[in-house]
Amino acid sequence: MPRLAFAALAAIALALVAVVASLAVGAQQIPAHDVWAAFVDYDAVNPSHQIVRELRVDRTVIGVAAGAALAVAGALTQSLTRNPLADPGLLGLNAGAALAIVLGTVVGGIASFAPQVLLAFVGAAGAGLVAYGVGATGAGAAAPARLVLAGAAVTALLTAVTSAIVVAQPFALNQLRFWLAGSLTGRAGVPVWPLVAFVAIAIALALLAVRPLSAIALGDDAAASLGTRAGLTRAHVLVTVIVLAGLATSLAGPIAFVGLAVPHLVRALVGPRIGWLLVLSIPLGAAVVLLCDVVGRIVARPGEISVGVTTALLGGVLLAALARRMRAVAP
Amino acid sequence: MTLTRPTWVALLLATIMLAAVTLAITYGQTAMPWSDSLQSAAGFTTNTPADFIVGQLRAPRTYTATLVGALLACSGVLLQSVARNPLASPDILGVTQGAAAAAVASIWAFGNTSSLALAPAAVAGALLTSALIVGVGWSRGIQPMRLIVAGIGIGFVASSITTYLLTAIPEHLAPQAYLWTIGSTNARVWEHVAIAAAAVAVTIPLALWLERRLRVLEMGDDLASGLGVRPVRLRLAAIALGALAAGLAAALTGPIGFVALVAPAIARRLVRTEGIALVPSIVAGAALTAVADLLARELFSPTQVPIGLFTAAIGAPYLLYLLHRARGLRS
Known about the structure:
The complex is a heterodimer of chains A (331) and B (331).
Chain A: H1 2-24, H2 32-40, H3 47-81, H4 93-107, H5 113-135, H6 144-167, H7 170-181, H8 192-207, H9 210-217, H10 220-225, H11 230-252, H12 258-270, H13 274-299, H14 307-325
Chain B: H1 5-26, H2 34-41, H3 50-83, H4 95-110, H5 115-137, H6 144-168, H7 174-182, H8 190-217, H9 221-226, H10 231-253, H11 259-271, H12 278-298, H13 307-325
Helix pairs in contact in B: 1-3, 1-12, 2-3, 3-8, 3-10, 3-11, 3-12, 4-5, 4-6, 4-10, 5-6, 5-10, 8-10, 11-12, 12-13
């Protein structure tokens, strides 16, 4: 498998490059050796070291966790629905989580973080079930575009409600508007490391689904004869996707398209193997989010473009390109 | 005299629209004599409080909302006829988002928020986006499902630009800009009414002129060509006119979602036709926004709720219902 090994190495190398770039690049350029020194030989009065340790480490960690979570969630969704256009962001999961968090903090006055994450799960689950229920079941379930449209409708509704809430509360708006655009800078009071730990656990759960998902890909009957319970696997995957999307949204706001784009990238490298798809989605998801964030820091210097904006730009172009590849039918 | 079904449907919807407009003018937080309110709404001076409350606050807002509804419905009818799909509408196809992005860019660049200044930018944005969508969705003629998926993608690109501009805008302008992106009829003045009336006066006669040909086209390209209609040219003209109407609407109130989708559907259902029903659709759009605007103003009074929230609350579930039935999606 030299090709697969090469793909894996390339993905990991790209992720490492992205991590270094995310630590080094920004309003204040910090040379790579200074970044290195900030970890091995920390100098508390060196401002470069302070920037790296105080700001950019958190930001980079959020990027890695959110990127990996979204990419894996996208890979799971695409495998489960056998729909190349499926993505938690497109399906409205992130918008649902964002609305739940906004409702909890702005309307409900919930300040502590644990209930907010639980709310995010509930929001993601609600949005996802509606979009999936409408878009992927019943007559004409095979049309990939239908799921996208259902997700677009759910997203539009949820985003309208979210905007209406924050608009009525100018104070909340100014606190939340960067996070609502999708940003790695972190909301105030977000405990980064515990969330990252949860992301790691959820990704591990996702990897447990590889074998049964591969079996389901052969069809439910074949899966049953291989000893896989299709219903149980679907539930397992759906719950994992919801948890991943909720965690990613809690960390970085509603970022769309990472879950759409990264699995396509991985499939171009390794073909339709579900195991490799999920594993390589982790480094590539992290790399894509971090690189988008770095680009956003460079382009609008000394300001920044939120990472959610950059990913949506790239992802929108990708979706248009995928549309271009859809089979043409005679008029 | 017996009326044809489209005529009496249009009359019925017009009655609803007039009732909503009258109610919006005469009913409100401040009670006033009906005669004063109606006179002020018609532009007469009564030397009563109605001159300000109705003449300057209620009437311009209500009229603008109603006219914008007509514009949106007109755009929706044209695009749905061209795409041969009840799901096509400027907000699904990304045309509205393109108009909004261009308008917000113009606010951001020139700091001018008057609708007259925004209109050229919004129209240019709408036309540019629709050209892009047609470019991507084109292959031996317009491919409806491709057009829709491409539109969702391009819509995401446009909204990500808007999102970025919203984070880049100064804090004191942010609530206003945010409100603008959901669609708001709050604080419209007579200038808006004048622009809206002019927009309606230009686009709707043109649309009526196209309607007959589009109806022929719905019978099939070959038959239409035989009858002297040039299909490609007609489709492009209809898309351009639809984009123009959507862009003007967006310049006046911001992107009010789902009206363009729902109004033609209501009209089609009442008229009991699968084809184009321009006049009933336009009246349905006007009635829809008139009612939604009244609700937005009074339901949670004194808190103002953006009208876009109400149209999304009506339209998104309707879209999901359409998808659930999955008609018109088998390409």
